[in-house]
């Protein structure tokens, strides 16, 4: 209800950015809108600078409010000019038809994002398979969560980032964080770690940088990037040698341990110290802390997972957790800290190349039959698996590759590895359509740009890092000329002759629930009303028969059995392999990338926020003082970083918080300061995750401060 005097109204919704999905209360009516943090069970009144600043962008002068098209159709050197929705959608439909007539259905591709609502992600997957009948769809979560997801499915039978509520972290006696920096990426989450620390719990951080999270830790392990697998195997070696493994748990709840036992035999502590740089004493202290904690949690994140061996690395940490008897025990376990706002839900509803809604395999005949029945199509008409994200991008414009592409909620010109190669591939397309709020670096390359609604202007659901499904509620109308992606997809599907697409979030959520029923990520018992009443509902939450009590949702997984056919978790023997690129005479240092507090993902939004720009206006390359001295670099000097892919320039941040052999740059910028112009696209064979977190680099001073 609007306020009777001011005409404003308040709406409970969630921050648009990271996977914590902090609850906020928005006041809107008179623009500009404002927000305050809510006492939601996740953020408990906390909010970070990104969340506080989010309303600034709703009225930003660069906001797109009209579709843009090329002044000369087909000529991307001609300017983008404002047009009508009719014209923009017509151009997309014409391009789709022309491309598919000439080159086949798979020549039209879709690229989605982990920022889409569950409803939008579901609709995008259905749009690709039903309206376009193409196998060519994947999303930017392939660059984010795919390694941990692949490992969790192999070992535990199910991927839900954290298989327990965040509140468990505050109750744990020891938490080991591997390649995760929540103090900068999701500061309100630190209250859980801080509560544990205040009780005397151990927080052990594994990170090549002494991050703000590591500064709060009781112990900081500082391994060389790309050696986390060796470290985990080494910790398990010590646990075995010291009789710390939980043999009863291993016998009752797992299979495959003997092979792993043999596999870690060669990971002697001194060898692991040589490989990783982590002293033996620190290895031992970590293992004893984990084994002696009544409640113990291991959380990994992108620092450990964005590697060519990312899946195996996540498996190594799961092996350790299983050997110590942690998963499924109350207040204990292994989990992964999802990054993007809907990084969890984004991978459950069918926008992945190999999956259908409900986190089902697209190759599974029963899954295809179930989803086809919900969609009202012949199961045979649903295409098979397509290429993974980078493989699809790398083949753009080639024979057998995608020639016309629709991109939603993703700025791949900045976020993809070897970004300049990807930009060049985008130039090979016959036609590119991008939906976004702003003219991102990817949208700048498009033939058609659709202006999409922002978070406060749309309805839907998001699934946070705990697997809690929350409501994104509309707090205000979108500007004239702007549409929700759900509506755009429904309109496009209709123009392509496909029936059964709705622009209404509630209708799509109900259908998503039916499509997910019986799948791993079962949402069929979740409704908007239940989410409202219960502050979110944890999946899986199947629908119960009429008259039976509602399923309560599942905050904690694996308490009785794992999601494997026999209910037992699987150990997997994994071995350390050297990073795809190692330092050499030409590129003598290790480059790693990550985030800073006041920016988010590819920066499409946060680089336009005036208040965030005051905090983090430019990207900085972190160098240890010893390395800076060797190279004659002083604080603030301009430095050029060069790898086998390209070059980029940054200002030097000389700091002793980083290893002397490692250089760190944030990945939120494009152009001449593009971290991903440098990164290595070598792919993990299981997850197809690129090796974002380690490559060889040369550093040169090119200007003084
Ligand atoms: Fe938003 Fe994440 Fe910050 Fe919370 S922690 S305010 S969800 S960016």
Corresponding CATH architecture of the largest domain: 3-Layer(aba) Sandwich
CATH fold name of the largest domain = Rossmann fold
Tell me roughly what share of residues is in helical segments.
Answer: 25-40%
* Ligand species: iron/sulfur cluster
Task: Report on the biggest sheet.
Answer: 7 strands, mixed
> How many domain units?
4
Strand line-up across the major sheet: 5-4-18-17-16-6-7
- Gross morphology is globular
Give the end-to-end Cα distance, rounded to a whole number of Å.
55 Å
Using the coordinates above, name the CATH class of the largest domain.
Alpha Beta
- The tally of helices reads 24
Which runs of at least 5 residues are low in confidence (pLDDT < 50)? none
Mean pLDDT: 94
In terms of DSSP E residues, the strand content is: 15-25%
| Radius of gyration from CA coordinates | 24 Å
Question: How many strand units?
Answer: 30
Structural class: alpha/beta
Protein name: Molybdopterin oxidoreductase family protein
Keywords: 4Fe-4S, Iron, Iron-sulfur, Metal-binding
GO molecular function, one term: NADH dehydrogenase activity
